[in-house]
Specification:
By secondary structure, the chain is of the alpha/beta class. The chain has three helices and eight strands; from the N terminus they run βαβββαβαβββ.
């Protein structure tokens, strides 16, 4: 297996509301087929899939709360952290942790989307982001 993630799929209760949130965050929805929302995010695809379809598809039953997995969006500057958090709140999300200094020296905060899925928004100057938006671990 090559070391990469191709698609991150998040199971949601309300596909239209969740897709509208991410469109308000500036993502462009690709309408490949009904019943799922796809968004290109750099070198991966971010997908939203209704829980009632995702559970039988995966052969699992999700709990009542969103997953313990959270997603992260790294920014090119400290100021962009605040801008993304504000955009998330304006789009209908909830600020979970306001922006502040991280123990590792960067600047970060958290928001939850309309389904309660948590995103970290962080600026880490030690993790460079190239012109295509790809992040890299320090050499």
């Amino acid at each position: 297996m090559e070391p990469r993630i191709s698609i991150v799929t998040v199971a949601v209760r309300d596909l239209d509301r969740a897709a509208a949130f991410y469109e308000a965050m500036g993502l462009r929805r690709h309408r490949i087929r009904d019943g799922v929302a796809f968004f290109q995010m750099g070198g991966i695809i971010f997908a939203l899939f209704p829980r009632e379809s995702a559970e039988p598809d995966a052969g699992v039953t999700f709990g009542a709360a969103p997953s313990a997995v959270y997603l992260a969006y790294n920014t090119r500057s400290e100021a962009e952290v605040g801008a993304v958090l504000a955009q998330a709140e304006k789009a209908g999300g909830r600020i979970v942790k306001p922006a502040g200094r991280a123990f590792w020296g960067g600047w970060y905060g958290y928001f939850a989307d309309t389904e309660g899925h948590v995103w970290e928004v962080a600026h880490n100057p030690d993790f460079p982001i190239d012109a295509n938006g790809n992040i890299a671990l320090p050499a």
